[in-house]
Amino acid sequence: MKRPKILLALMAVVVFTACTRDGETIADAGQEGVTSMTPPELRLTCSDSPSATRAGNDVMSTQLVSGLQVDVFMRDATDGCVTYPLPVTYTTDGSGKLNYDDSATRLYWPRLLHSLDIYGVYPSGVVSPSAAFAFNTEYSFTVAADQRTDANYIASDLMTGFPSSPTPNVAPCTLNQDGDEGTVNLAFTHRLTKIIVNVAPSEKIQTGEGAVVQADIDYAVISHYNEVTEEYEDIPDTKYACITLLNVKRKIPFKVYDATSNLGTAIVADDAVSTISVGIGASGTCIIPPQTISAAFIQIDLMNGENVAETFYYTPASALTLDAGKVYTFNVTLDKPNLEVTVNNITPWGSGESDQTGTAVLQPTE
To answer: The whole model's pTM is what?
Structure first.
């Protein structure tokens, strides 16, 4: 199955003194000494792609949001020379471009007619500069335990970006220089697994004693007019659902790239399982490492003020394998005595198709 990719444009240009031979230097195009032998200016661009929403389930589905730092690693692929300090850190603008902080400087290909190794990693600080091109190096990444905010969710979205048109039969980060053309297109890929949980009551529990209706699940802020202050005040709901993932491994070892896949390896570490707070209300989204779930996986707490009124658990009927780079949507119907769950949209991020179904048993609150 073809993997989705986020295409980014790095519009920054940086001036540097390249690795040289016999005292040769590469200068800024506006400086004395630039000749026809100066390598082309390096510009990193991308194809158009829609911007993601800043809230809800579509955060960073197709584009990195504004204000994030991305580490870019580059070197001369012909002789392995690193021409400037790594990483070169850029900031996203939310529309497919990465901006270098020093807009007064420019970046060039390492040497005229030499190939270039280049790739990017988000979040910043994950890959060690000293081992940036030692692709067998194994790193560790841990997703946030509380992903109810966009910030923590986004910080958990491990991605690597390689040139969209690499040199054939070479490592996916390698590009040949095409005459005077210095443009490079990076395509970023989600390395982990996205989970969406939607919650709704079944028809038969919406009436009678202990009824559960949509208002018991949704979370909203109610605006109330205070006659004393003559101002409107926001009053949070007292009844809503809390969504939590159980028995999840949050830590993953990974490699930027290996010989079998440009995604590198993504095997879950044998670390202790923990919980992840997904959201409140009728829907929540989080990112976890790829793994297999065999125990209770989803917990739905129906809250009444600070008290838990009822708790529902979903346990897969059989081992559930969650693959890297895919989104899994769990449509949870609260029922008594059973919690019905359908699992669909197990696909690369950005498209949809149905897959498997399951049921879960309601367990009483202690």
So the answer is: 0.79
DSSP 104: T
CA 320 to chain centre: 21
Distance between CA atoms of residues 19 and 17, nearest Å: 7
More reliable by pLDDT, 145 or 57? 145
> Which residues, in sequence order, are CB contacts of 193 under 8 Å at separation 6+?
287, 288, 289, 290, 291, 322, 323, 324, 325, 326, 327, 328
> How far, rounded to the nearest angstrom, does the alpha carbon of residue 343 sit from its chain's CA centroid?
21
Q: In whole angstroms, what is the distance from residue 173 CA to residue 182 CA?
A: 15
CA torsion angle 332 267 252 284 (round to 10):
-10
What is the C-alpha to C-alpha distance for residues 334 and 312, in angstroms, rounded to an integer?
Answer: 8
The predicted pLDDT at position 357 comes to 35
340 three-state secondary structure: strand
Token pair of 46, please?
């991308």
151-173 average pLDDT score: 82
Asked if the peptide bond before residue 87 counts as cis, ω within 30 degrees of 0, the response is yes
Residue type, 305: G
Report angle CA 80, 85, 90 to the nearest 5 degrees. 110
Give the HSE-up count for residue 19: Cα atoms under 13 Å, Cβ half-sphere: 16
Kindly state the helix (H) or strand (E) to which residue 150 belongs, with its residue range.
helix 150-155
Phi-psi region of 329 (alpha: psi -120 to 50; beta: other; left: phi over 0): beta
Please state, in angstroms and rounded to a whole number, the distance separating the CA atoms of residues 101 and 77.
Answer: 25
Taking the C-alpha atoms of residue 74 and residue 116, their distance in angstroms, rounded to an integer, is 7
Strand partners of residue 45: 185
The token pair at 362 is 């309601």
The radius of gyration computed from the CA coordinates of the chain, to the nearest angstrom, equals 25
Higher pLDDT, 283 or 223: 283
Token pair in block for residue 238: 């007292």
Q: What percent of the chain has pLDDT over 90?
A: 19
